[in-house]
User: Fold Acetyl-coenzyme A carboxylase carboxyl transferase subunit beta from Novipirellula artificiosorum.
Amino acid sequence: MSQSKKRGVPEGLWVKCPGCSASVYKKEVEQRLNVCPKCEYHFYVSAHERIAQVLDDGTFEPMNEHLRSTDPLEFADRRKYSERLVGEQKRTGLTDAVVTGTGMIRARRVAFAVTDSAFIMGSMGSVVGERLTRLVEFATEQELPLIIISASGGGARMHEGILSLMQMAKVTAALARYDEACGLFVSVLTNPTMGGVAASFASLGDLVFAEPKALIGFAGPRTIKATIGIELPEGFQTSEFLLEHGYIDRIVPRKSLKTEIARAIDYCGK
Assistant:
């Protein structure tokens, strides 16, 4: 009599947590908004998942999706920048590294943006800067609270050179005008928020929230260590370290973010 084959565990049911190295049930992680049930590690989520988590169902209205990056410098490293853009758009389903628009957070209308590290590490090119600037200007005109969730590990996009660096100043100037108009800007920092994004708009919120254990800073820890040759403090550039040193206002777990933003809007009378 032939022995029956042992039934294996189907692939994709379990994932390894980068935080505690435990194997956790994927469906349970997803039900917890992609947060580890054992150590509360916050997994990567896409821009569209962020929209679904934070905004009320069916209220998001995208803006400026027609804006697309070009290749003004005809930049090439391992592949041409123009080809890289097409590849990233097909792979991620995004047109660029930021999604902007309007929506409702617990019935409060807001101007909303989220960057996605899956698209060239969420780096800020001309289109990212232009979309953010137009969103800030729209929020100023419509007197809307402004919410930007940052997940950008690439800083300014080197493929566009000085055109990318200019976006830091452009978005910052728009935020200055928004501030003069007494707007409320809530900046949410997630893992990672680095480079030119951290050095510009992500740090300028009237309220700066961060997810637990997010990497936040300008140059990464390995780059700093290699440059200055000394050991960095434990937990350097994490949300917890930055909260202790006054860089951010509050650490907010993902499950509480929607409620905390709505509460901030009400508290500030917006």
Q: What stands out?
A: The CA atoms of residues 73 and 160 lie 6 Å apart.
